[in-house]
Amino acid sequence: MAVSSIGTYNNVYEGVSVKQKKEAEASRQKRTGDIHRTSETTMEKTETTKGTDNEEYLKSLQKQVPYTKLEVGSALSMKKDKRAGVITINPKLLEKMQKDPEAAAQYTQKLKDIERAERTVNAYYNSLGGVVERTSHWYVDEEGNHYHFAYTRRDDRLNKKIREETKKNTENHIEKTRNKAREKAEKLEEQLEKKAEEAKETEEEQVTEVPGNREEVQQFIDAVMMEEGLDIKI
Q1: Would you say the pTM of this structure is higher than 0.85?
Q2: What is the gyration radius of the CA atoms in the chain, in angstroms?
């Protein structure tokens, strides 16, 4: 009986010990889980705070480069989405700029340089005309290096139309000039013909009058010779 009692006591003790171990393990796991969840919550709040800070800081940067569109991202977009002047900035670089005034000044100037380049390129394409689709994406990584992707599609039909109109106007101008020159030439020719006819008529009149004049001159010569007593030979 005694042995049996001892065996029963040992079984009960072992059962209690196993239960305590399970409860202790469950308690430990619960505490670990709570700590883990607390850590996740803390990290989530930290990331959310960082994201909010970056967004607010990005708004302040946007005011300094109004010609472009600033976005937060981690890669260069190569989509032909017809958006031009888009600058994607790595979030780590934004954090660095917020903490370091020198970095902020350096990379803000880089954004301004990109904006100036974008303005210049846009003005160039506007001068060419015929641009129907243009994409221009920029990306500044966490080290401040920049990358660029661009796509432009032009349709020269407008320029062709302008050239055709210019050619037509030029041809019309040349034709008008030729007509005026032709009219002047015709008038000049008429004037020359008229002068030639007048000269011919004058010449004919002179030829017609010559015989009469010669006869009168000869009579005058004969009369003079008779008065002088000179012989008149016929």
Answers
A1: no
A2: 56
